[in-house]
Amino acid sequence: MNHVTLRPAPELTRTIAHLERELPPGGIPAYLAARREGARSFVLWADEHRGALVATVVTVSCENGVAVYQVLGPQGELLCTIERAKAFSKGLRTRWTLSRPGEPDVVGYKGRIIWWCTWWLFYPLRPVVWVAAMFSMSDVPRAPGRIIWRTRGRTLVEFKMTWNEIYLRDPALDEGVGAALLALVHSFDWQSGGWDSWTEKQAERIGKTSRMNRPSRSAE
């Protein structure tokens, strides 16, 4: 994943951002070391040629299983704050909280409790299921990943792992916020490793000259 697709309506999909990691002075190794602690830093561009900036994501803090990020607009203005609380740090499931200036918090939980119970019940059989999936050429089962963000009884945002998209149910929600939220969620996909976990050698091995492996803008 090196781009972001939004679903503003069930019948519509649109790519609005291309992703690039913002690398610290230590380059990719330093980024990956900080990433293991929960830090994230990346830019969302409106086009592949970096012609226009959509948003920037920066890490505010990472401690005790809770990470806080800010999403900044093209002029550096604060669009929103996103908090990710790992499972068992503030509840049974991973919790994502979206806070916008002057708006009530929007909270989403990863997966439904019943599906997590089912997942862990059959977890010991996972190797057998994976081998069967490989021989039958079918999809490998994934952990529950659906997230629905709600506030005051209303659903504003919905994410499904199978979509690789985020569905904005509130037309007033800034697209840059939705794109940043999707990029953050996918960076924590433990089964794929996360889109921003590429090393330079991995990118070269598959012929990628991806934006996510280029030097940060400050270094150029």
Layout: helices, strands, pairs:
Elements: E1 3-9, E2 12-21, H1 27-35, E3 42-45, E4 53-63, E5 66-72, E6 78-85, E7 95-99, E8 106-110, H2 113-121, H3 126-135, E9 147-151, E10 154-160, E11 165-168, H4 175-187, H5 200-205
Parallel strand pairs: 1-11
Antiparallel strand pairs: 1-2, 2-3, 3-4, 4-5, 5-6, 6-7, 7-8, 8-9, 9-10, 10-11
Structural description of this entry:
Helix content is 21%, strand content 33%. The chain has 220 residues and is of the alpha+beta class. It has an 11-stranded mixed β-barrel with strand order 1-2-3-4-5-6-7-8-9-10-11. Strand 3 and strand 4 (53-63) form a beta hairpin. The longest helix has 13 residues, at 175-187. The two termini are 24 Å apart. Residues 206-220 have low confidence and may be disordered.
Q: Tell me the major beta sheet.
A: 11 strands, mixed, barrel
Q: Report the span from N to C terminus.
A: 24 Å
What are the low-pLDDT stretches, counting only 5+ consecutive residues below 50? 206-220
- Order of SSEs: EEHEEEEEEHHEEEHH
Query: What general form does the structure show?
Result: globular
- What radius of gyration results from the CA coordinates? 18 Å
What is the percentage of strand-forming residues?
A: 25-35%
Strand segment tally: 11
Q: In which order are the strands of the major sheet placed?
A: 1-2-3-4-5-6-7-8-9-10-11
Tally of helical runs:
5
| Content-based structural category | alpha+beta
Q: Please give the share of residues in helix.
A: 10-25%
Mean pLDDT, nearest integer?
79
